[in-house]
């Protein structure tokens, strides 16, 4: 029979029955005794055996292994951000790292290279923030096939249930890439060429040329026309190398634009 429980019980372990009781009132506080080290008892045959069972310690927060994996992913993201000069600083890194941690939660990193998963997470973050980067920019930086990285990106979207999300489904605006492609082509910023190309892209969008087409081809056609109109003598091969499309695709986009109402306008008409 136990007395009324104490307001401030004094725990005492009773090894015989493996209980933790109050040394004052006798109330059972815990039907188990926990010890830092192992203890042994003799069984009926006289052999020593381990008393009780071992309980693994549960650490607060992430385990050391998890922390290392997260840190490695963040380092990879940081390297890519600075290698490609992605704007946004810590904000874009944190966003991409959050996607990376979600990938870890779903065991997506197992069997895949950290750099590939990090690049896919950063690409999702760039699409979310409307940054002017294509998947091929990341694959070129990592020196891997765009199809390899594309497979990782699509699988990650499936795991994170992003397949129907606007981040993935929304069409990429070609105008986001014009300034970057212009600087890559000319080796410097040129607002006049960029502005003309942006006007041409806007005309393409009004004529529904954007629907069902990748932004790189539209940007290439607009940049080619804009560069020629401002006196730059670049070939289709030069433009194709900058925007990562083949010359045949670039030629098709130029023919399509020529057949629209805007195709007969002059540069002055575009600017007005």
From TrEMBL:
GO terms for biological process: transcription preinitiation complex assembly. The keyword Transcription regulation applies. It comes from the Eukaryota. InterPro entries: Cyclin-like_dom, Cyclin-like_sf, TFIIB, TFIIB_cyclin. One of its GO terms (molecular function) is RNA polymerase III type 3 promoter sequence-specific DNA binding. Gene3D superfamilies: Cyclin-like (1.10.472.10). The keyword Transcription regulation applies. Residues 75-158, 176-259 form the Cyclin-like domain. Keywords: Transcription, Transcription regulation. Pfam families: TFIIB. GO terms for cellular component: nucleus; transcription factor TFIIIB complex; transcription preinitiation complex. PANTHER family: CYCLIN-LIKE DOMAIN-CONTAINING PROTEIN, TRANSCRIPTION INITIATION FACTOR IIB-RELATED. This is Cyclin-like domain-containing protein. It comes from Aegilops tauschii subsp. strangulata (Goatgrass).
């Amino acid at each position: 029979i136990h007395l009324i429980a104490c307001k401030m019980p004094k725990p005492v372990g009773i090894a015989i029955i493996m209980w933790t009781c109050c040394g004052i009132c006798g109330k059972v506080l815990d039907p188990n005794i926990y010890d830092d080290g192992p203890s042994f008892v003799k069984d009926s045959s006289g052999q020593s055996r381990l008393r009780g069972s071992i309980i693994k310690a549960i650490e607060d927060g992430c385990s050391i292994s998890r922390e290392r994996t997260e840190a490695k992913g963040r380092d990879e993201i940081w390297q890519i951000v600075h290698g490609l000069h992605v704007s946004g600083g810590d904000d874009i890194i944190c966003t991409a790292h959050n996607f990376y941690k979600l990938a870890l939660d779903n065991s997506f990193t197992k069997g895949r290279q950290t750099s590939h998963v990090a690049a896919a997470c950063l690409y999702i973050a760039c699409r979310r923030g409307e940054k002017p980067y294509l998947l091929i920019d990341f694959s070129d930086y990592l020196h891997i096939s765009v199809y390899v990285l594309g497979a990782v990106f699509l699988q990650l979207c499936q795991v994170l249930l992003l397949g129907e999300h606007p981040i993935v489904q929304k069409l990429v605006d070609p105008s986001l890439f014009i300034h970057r492609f212009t600087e890559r082509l000319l080796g410097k910023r040129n607002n006049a060429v960029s502005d003309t190309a942006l006007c041409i892209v806007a005309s393409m969008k009004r004529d529904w040329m954007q629907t069902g087409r990748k932004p790189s081809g539209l940007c290439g056609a607009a940049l080619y026309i804009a560069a020629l109109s401002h006196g730059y003598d670049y070939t289709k091969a030069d433009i194709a190398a900058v925007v990562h499309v083949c010359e045949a695709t670039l030629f098709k986009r130029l023919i399509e634009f020529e057949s629209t109402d805007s195709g007969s306008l002059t540069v002055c008409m575009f600017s007005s």
